[in-house]
Amino acid sequence: xxxxxxxxxxxxxxxxxxxxxxxxxxxxxxxxxxxxxxxxxxxxxxxxxxxxxxxxxxxxxxxxxxxxxxxxxxxxxxxxxxxxxxxxxxxxxxxxxxxxxxxxxxxxxxxxxxxxxxxxxxxxxxxxxxxxxxxxxxxxxxxxxxxxxxxxxxxxxxxxxxxxxxxxxxxxxxxxxxxxxxxxxxxxxxxxxxxxxxxxxxxxxxxxxxxxxxxxxxxxxxxxxxxxxxxxxxxxxxxxxxxxxxxxxxxxxxxxxxxxxxxxxxxxxxxxxxxxxxxxxxxxxxxxxxxxxxxxxxxxxxxxxxxxxxxxxxxxxxxxxxxxxxxxxxxxxxxxxxxxxxxxxxxxxxxxxxxxxxxxxxxxxxxxxxxxxxxxxxxxxxxxxxxxxxxxxxxxxxxxxxxxxxxxxxxxxxxxxxxxxxxxxxxxxxxxxxxxxxxxxxxxxxxxxxxxxxxx
Length: 456
Prior knowledge:
5-stranded parallel sheet, Rossmann fold, 456 residues, single chain
């Protein structure tokens, strides 16, 4: 959404039209005018309007009457109402009907200009998000324009129409389930069930029954027969999250289902055909699990026909401002807040942070900022402590700040600093640094990669 904003002034007073037109044009806005409700509604239908200034007292219809029609035509069009009555009742009713804000007559020019600029910024952010979603049609809530994410989108588009099983890899919080849902949405199975299975949330002794179902009396508590998630996903997509945690016995039965395309309920003998596309996900090195003897090699190859590797957020930092804008729009609307965005200093801090929790952590940070921010713009000092610490070499906390701190952020920052110091003392030799920190070399190596300390 480039260029200047377009403001429509709907008011039947020529003097006020002149005053507002001069004020807004001087601030760089394009200004259209309408002297009646009918004329204003027609312009909204015919023109590209970004902000509406609406008088509540019009000659043909009241502003409160046409406000719902404006919002029906364009729910994202911000409307600032002008009223000659400073009564709380009319203002509250206008806000209830979807007005962005209101200003009573007589008004100060600065007040109107400030509200219009805020409304225009809100409109710009919303339209940018809608345009992005349009470009990424079918990708749902996955946001990103970086080269790495464009490669992911291309893989999704190419793999979705096929029947082949897919393995999604990536750290926790990178959006693996969102990718699985996008694959299903773009596949010929989109009208059939998408069934997510979070294997870590199901006790291992119940996982087999959950996946394949059971017959009555198969075990204590099986008072009736029940179909499993494979049957629930018939002709659709079954998403196995954290597939690397599945126990060896269930791995064997899962392999058989993939090969034979049929299941047997626990305690039963009848084979039931199932037509299911499997999309699996893992945040661990699944090949490493195979080599360690914890995951079946043949099952690994059955699941890993096509691999989609999601980059951690620290490897696509250019997407962070866009993600912030996306989450800001979501949580300002959800919490009924009127906010412009984050200050440049706050955006810099968000972009520089290592985000060990990836996109999920960023989303939580934006939601927290929207809820706790004192003004229209989130400032640097309103971010969690770990994001705004000025020195990367030292984090000291003499006392917990009055507003509190995010424990996970602070711990992650302190971990990175400890590792950095240990590597410095050992000349970058990870084995020696691991010994200093009383960690295994494998654990330290994983943390070095997570916090992007390898180059240092």
